[in-house]
Specification:
Helix content is about 55%, strand content about 10%. The protein is mainly alpha-helical. The protein has two domains: about 5-195 and about 300-330, Rossmann fold (3-Layer(aba) Sandwich); about 215-295, Tyrosyl-Transfer RNA Synthetase, CATH 1.10.240.10. Strands 1-2-3 form a three-stranded parallel beta sheet. A two-stranded parallel sheet has the order 4-5. It is globular, with a radius of gyration of 22 Å. Bound molecules: tryptophan.
């Protein structure tokens, strides 16, 4: 489809790490590059507010997300990059959709249920730490998606249910008021490999085992040295396909380099050497983006300019659709 709308949101809740890059950013940049329709990628700062309630932190993380995408090659001439909070129509639609969403649908959302289960295990009240923004998080996400008539929503597996909820809410609206919203589909990356963190578990902020993308080279080297390995001796042959180091290496090296390191594993390589190879590949890849990221973070007014231009383009789509929605519910002006 040539006028297909691809949309995704990125929540500013922590430093962007290698796992985010491999699992979400890289595939989303590929999708945007391949699409000849419209790609809308935004910083879900008001979703971030459900977790981050510190002024400097929320602001810096939001800039950090924008700078990350730009540094890694997002072309703001092709992809509409904006801040959710710069598009007030999203929040107006959020209320309209809230009134059409049964509370039970929110009770059943996995993210909310996971917090409740955790609280119960700790012997706490089920809703401890749950604010209303967190509870209704999927409705705001539905507004993000539906306001742009999105066809495709690239997300991680944990967000599939949220896109299904957006569909469900769109269907309810359409049933009651007549065909208005497109029903969105999610896209999940084919690369379903779990990206291992320093301790071998999935790389995740919540396990505190991440390798942040834009640390200085010597910090990157130190972190890579910390990746957990087994006790096979340096000269012993190693299985590349069960090695976390090799798995990460494959994401950054060329096919020839990958084949070469594979051979070295099979004939025996020390973990220290393998880590050095990984460091070199990751660092070579990140050198340019790191510089670009640091330059952007030192000039937030440049980021603002790009985001404001993005918001202008986004609102050119959002304003007429919201007007149509308001007229459908009986609030013509
Ligand atoms: N909830 C998503 C996440 O945590 C972020 C997000 C917000 C989003 N709004 C969206 C993703 C709309 C896709 C579409 O990753």
């Amino acid at each position: 489809m040539s006028n297909e709308i691809v949309l995704t949101g990125i929540k500013p809740t922590g430093k962007v790490h290698l796992g985010n890059y491999i699992g979400a950013i890289k595939p989303a940049l590929q999708i945007a590059g391949a699409s000849n329709g419209t790609a809308l990628y935004f910083i879900a700062d008001y979703h971030g507010l459900t977790f981050i309630q510190n002024r400097d932190e929320l602001g810096n993380l939001s800039y950090g997300i924008a700078a990350t995408w730009l540094a890694l090659g997002l072309d703001p001439g092709r992809v509409v990059l904006y801040r959710q909070s710069d598009v007030p129509e999203i929040f107006e639609l959020n209320w309209i959709l809230s009134c059409l969403t049964p509370k039970g649908l929110m009770n059943r959302a996995h993210a909310y249920k996971a917090i409740q289960d955790q609280n119960e295990q700790l012997g706490l009240d089920a809703d401890t730490g749950v604010n209303m923004g967190l509870f209704t998080y999927p409705i705001l996400m539905a507004a993000d998606i539906l306001l742009f008539q999105s066809d495709k929503v690239p997300v991680g597996k944990d967000q599939i249910q949220h896109v299904e909820i957006a569909r469900d809410i769109a269907e309810r609206f359409n049933r009651n008021y007549g065909d208005t919203f497109k029903l969105p589909d999610y896209i999940v990356g084919e690369n379903t490999a779990v990206i291992p963190g320093l301790d071998g578990r999935k790389m995740s902020k919540s396990y505190n085992n991440t390798i942040p993308l834009f640390e200085p080279a010597d910090t990157l080297k130190k972190l890579i040295r910390k990746i957990k390995t087994d006790s096979t001796l340096p000269h012993e042959p190693k299985d590349p396909d069960t090695s976390n180091i090799f798995l990460l290496y494959k994401e950054f090296a060329t096919p020839a380099q990958i084949q070469d390191l594979r051979n070295r594993y099979l004939s025996g390589i020390s973990w220290g050497e393998a880590k050095q190879e990984l460091f070199q590949a990751v660092n070579a890849f990140l050198e340019e983006p790191r510089k670009k990221y640091n330059d952007l973070m030192a000039a937030p007014e440049q980021i603002d300019q790009i985001l404001h231009e993005g918001a202008r383009k986004a609102r050119a789509i959002a304003v007429p659709l919201l007007a149509k929605v308001k007229s459908k519910i009986g609030l013509e002006n």
